[in-house]
């Protein structure tokens, strides 16, 4: 029997990998995939806690996270395509008009 | 016995996660993401979340990763990244931050970990999740459909070519 701690540790490591990916990479697409990685690690934590507490609520929340993630990907990728059209690049360092 | 399934799945997920953030080509990142999603679906099965595991494969692997691959194909993204580094030492700072963050997160989640509860055999089936979804969570469920509609409209509006611009 695998204890919940093992699943939660895996989820924590995946979340940190996603965070480091967002901080280190400059290709907007890869940053986006790192965000998806973080969302998935949180989903794993939700499912683990649902199993630990014996209630199905955590799994329902994962369902909503899936919905929001799908919408987020659609809108985000549309934005990236739009930025690529106007600037011919998906490097986030090229998109700094709002920099203070 | 469960370890025999959990350890390979966890190793695959970690390898895929490193692949997502370390690949030079965006395509390799997307395929690594696919590996992570599949491995996580296996862990969901171990955690008695059959419905979520299937949903994970259909929605994430089937729709989201395919969308990523389409966009990568459309953008013919340039190889590698620009040479100039706007924030020097960002990479080292990010890795140090990541290590500290990992320790904090690990302590926090391990403090919350307890023993697994006893659950009925039908825990996590589509029926059980559906009853909760259409009972307690029916209002958020309806809101989710509005969010999906907003996303669809946003994608159409953002993807439209401004009028007057000739196609390339």
Could you name the key traits of this structure?
heterodimer; A: 100 residues; mainly alpha; B: 168 residues; 6 helices; 0% strand
Order of helices and strands of chain A: HHH
Alpha-carbon distance between the termini of chain A? Answer: 53 Å
Largest beta-sheet details of chain A: none
Biggest interface, chains and residue tallies: A-B, 75 and 84 residues
Shape of chain B: globular
Q: Approximately how much helix is present in the residues of chain A?
A: over 70%
The helicity of chain B comes to over 70%
Q: Tally of extended strands of chain A? A: 0
What does this entry look like structurally?
The complex is a heterodimer of chains A (100) and B (168). Chain A is mainly α. Chain A has helices at 4-24, 28-53, 57-87. In chain A, helix 1 (4-24) packs antiparallel against helix 2 and helix 2 (28-53) runs antiparallel to helix 3. The longest helix of chain A is centred in the C-terminal third of the chain and has 31 residues, at 57-87. The termini of chain A are far apart. The radius of gyration of chain B is 21 Å and the shape is globular. The longest helix of chain B is centred in the middle third of the chain and has 26 residues, at 50-75. Chain B is mainly alpha-helical and 168 residues long. Chain B contains six helices and no strands. In chain B, helix 1 (2-22) packs antiparallel against helix 2 and helix 2 (26-46) runs antiparallel to helix 3 (50-75). The chains are: A mainly alpha (100), B mainly alpha (168). At the A-B interface, helix 1, helix 2 and helix 3 of A face helix 1, helix 2, helix 3, helix 4 and helix 5 of B.
